[in-house]
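> tool_call: predict_assembly(chains=three)
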Amino acid sequence: MTTAPAGTVRQVMSFRLRDRVRHWLDSEPVLAYLFMSPGWLILLLFMSYPFFLGIWISLTDRTVGLPSGEFVGLRNYTELFRDRTFHLTVINTFIYGFVTVPFKLFLGLLLALLLNQAFPMRNVLRAALLLPWIVPTALSSLAWLMLYDAVLSPFSWLLKNWGLIESNIAFLGTRTNAIISLCIANIWRGTPFFAVAILAGLQAVPQELHEAAAIEGANRVQRFFAVTLPVIKGIVVITTLFSIIWTFADFQLVYVLTKGGPANSTHIFGTYAWQIGIGGAGKLGIGAAISLYMFPVLAVLSAILLRYVRSQEA
Amino acid sequence: MAQVIYDHVTKRFDGVIAVNDLTLEVKDGEFLVLVGPSGCGKTTALRCLAGLEEVSSGDIIIGDRVVTHIPPKDRDIAMVFQNYALYPHMTVYENMAFGLKLRKMPKQEIDRRVKEVAEMLGIQDLLNRKPRQLSGGQRQRVALGRAIVREPQVFLMDEPLSNLDAKLRVQTRGELIKLQRRLGVTTIYVTHDQVEAMTMGHRIAVMNQGVLQQLDTPENLYDHPANLFVATFIGSPAMNIFPARVVTGEGAVRLVAGDVTLESPAEQRGRLAEYANREVLVGIRPEDLIVQPGQVGEDRHLRLPVEIVEPLGSETLVHLRGPVGTLIAKADPHVHFSPGELASVRVKIEHLHAFDPQTELALF
Amino acid sequence: MVGSNRLSSRLVLLYLPLALFTIFLLFPFYWMLIISLKPNNLLLNMKINPLYLTQFTLDHYRYLLSNTDFPRWALNTAIVTFGATFLSLTSSILMGYALGRFRFRGGNVAGTAIFLAYLIPPTLLFIPLSQVVARFGLYNTYWALIFTYPTFLIPFASWLLMGYFRTIPRELEECAMIDGASRFQAMWRIILPLALPGVLSAGIFSFTLSWNEFLYALVFMGSGEMKTIPVGTVSDLIRADLFQWGPLMAAAMLGSVPVAIAYMFFVDQYVSGLTAGAVKG
């Protein structure tokens, strides 16, 4: 019906010649990749590259003093099978990563339910009780280190004072004690995270649902299971998975409190990898192998988490 | 001010054709309404004109410039969005001044224009408020004002009234018409509401499934729909459509539907005769069925049972059991009908429409 | 009667458990504080109740600030924290914007990859990463941490910002572009101001995570005077088994103060960031 006047045809030509690059730069896919490039560059250089380098190193006998190293196949991995400290490390990590979770979840849920009530100074308390989670763990672990001290522990002092024990408890002196102590410190640090995440979920529970359930004669406990729990279930599952992943791959708390002692009996993957790979002999190959032993567990947990997050989004 | 031309514009999204070979010329100063059901491509067509979507093929011309590959900011247009898209962190004044500031206009000139337009729209007292402090109607005005201060060549409006309540919508509709006639700026207005389309546009472009169905004045669109889609889309309640067989003989052409026989309009006999012994789709608007209660009237009137009566105040809609399906007729609100009774129906034969059942194009 | 009944039930069901939680969660901080203020002669005296403070002194803080490298560690930590936060925030705003607002092939894959990157812990990477840092010549420099902290900050912050950008209606940006803004002007003047709460959340989070990081700082900057506060405190103030508890607790206090302050000011942003992290991943 209409054709462009002659003058405009020339403009079309000039567009084709001059503005092509600009136009190309303005298209969404191009801009998207451009925008993502700084982030991906950093992640590729300092995350993907070391990840694959780590797999390679774990297949060599590279040490800090001998950075080239020779290819040794799976020897580092198979040798760890025979390493008693590594056996303990695996057991410790699973205890530390999984056994603490029900406690954190239960205490966090309880705390969230309490903080969801109305009372004076609620916001101040909510803020203060999150402190264990936000303060540098290495530093707060120092406080625990003293609380667990063989001589100076105020817990021992109190119990002695009340006549419950004769002599000081060796909180970090035996493997069993040390692991329990580590778990308690970890529960202390992790509970606020659960509480705050669940509290956010609780605030999304529609009040009308509670009222409707109350009218139908449901008591507090019934309402919790019928109304509250279904709404916060997503948050609870995701928070739990996150917590397991982080605790499983922890480092600082154990490093500060026991350094894996006594007698290398309380290592978790992170600290043992550090001790073998960096701290002691600098056996990078074996250290990398220890780290990579975490990978299957992390991969499974991540896959579950990813699937769950996806299903929540849909 | 300028003309706008869509020259064979096609827009595909991942294989789906949203706008199919649209060719359309909007005259300088014209108020053109793009109307159609949701998903018909009208909004996509508008967004292509705005430069928010890249056309797949074809060209768009504003004034005497081909703008097909020019970014939105250089097209010299202004757009009013359905949700108004007011910048929430800016005051009304800043919202209106934003586009002018970007064009590096002197401060006094910005101030003068913003205040002038604010006064024109009666929002001069709201200039220091943030959008969240405004009512829906006020927001709509600010969105409009933000477009007007720019003094663009073309206004684009994407269902700007659909978020208002019914009463305000009617009132704003009137104001918008007056404003456009006064400013004389070429305006392209997208809506799914055929009443808005009929009342506002100089001309209306009806779209369906990405294809332009008809481009005409409201009157012509109503009286001479080009095809079945336009016929049923424009007008409320919709045109009655029913199949009928064309019977010729004894020098007459008749339309037979069930036990009802209608004479062909005199001047359309020739056209209908081509369909002798075949079916056509017959259309008749509700106001072209004259109904009276009871058995009164002449013999040639139809006698049809009343199914439902909908009194609307200014008129009454009477649902009749027709020869094939229900027919809706508009009746005088002061005449009483009761369901179950027979009504006498006169068909205004001269206003009859007929459509080819295959192509759905209008025969007349 | 009814009132007192309610009060006593509130006491048992609310205030008592809250009090227990408060003691459990805050006692270590109380301990940190009183030890940091307790004179040395009282500190080791187990005859007296250790839970009270009968005299107090600032000696430990004085010692920490003048006789140790703590001021230098604080400077190191601040430089690294600001550097890493700035770098991460800039890249994450761009990344989150791209993932949240652009339609492009591979967008979903990129989003998933970012999410998975968030789940890769430092303990998995630190040994090979130490080799990478050494190879790039960054060992024992600020850059070692400024470049490696973003590996856990960018995934988190991008994910958070992506969610934020998605909540901002597309029309605002389109309207700005029709009004005469280029894409970058629309981003800078319309979208970014509206995403400010999200940017703040991501910033606070990046700040705290950088300030608190331990493993990478220990491995890449663990020697000499380049230590950060957590690493310096843990490795230099504990010499063999000779614990200087006073300065140690003083260091723990001072090292915690910046994050505690940042957190107190922006607790809501912090919490929303935390839950965005937990809820949206």
